Amino acid sequence: MNLKDINMLNKICGKDIIHVECPHITEKKFIAYCKRVRPLLFCITPANYQFVQAEFGLDGLTPEEFSETLTRIYKELKGVCQIQLHVHISQFPKRVPNKRKRELIENAYYFMKNKVGITPTKIVFGWFSYDEDCKKISEKLDLNIIENHFHIYDRDIKPLEN
Q1: Is 158 helix (H, G, I), strand (E, B) or coil?
Q2: Residues 62, 1: Cα–Cα separation, whole Å
Q3: How do residues 93-143 score in pLDDT, each as one tens digit?
Q4: Which domains does the chain carry?
């Protein structure tokens, strides 16, 4: 199956699971969609500030402002949707030092727990790419790693402007 077919299947079958990577861009449509559909959300956190900045741009949001934006959005949705973790380590996680992997996963976990008021129990790694180190860190936080599954992205709800 080619990538185009996989993307099409995701858009047809994956509307109940969303990988949230740029809610600061899609906020209004994203929140309205979530309140209507009540999907399972795997959400990016400020731990991945650099990833989000490189992939989508942050319109000058500082790390603190980005954190406040995510906190506000996720708190609004936490009574409507199940919110879990989405963390990007690398497409090649073995090339990332264990200390950095631990920092990304733990910072994401504690952001959700301390800022949003949710104790996550599941994690999806970006590109479904993780290694044994990531697995051990996740297990210590009682996070179940979710493997490949149908899903859409928050950016699929409203196309990004160029």
Answers
A1: coil
A2: 40
A3: 999 999 999 999 999 999 999 999 999 999 999 988 999 999 999 999 999
A4: 3-157 (3.20.20.370)
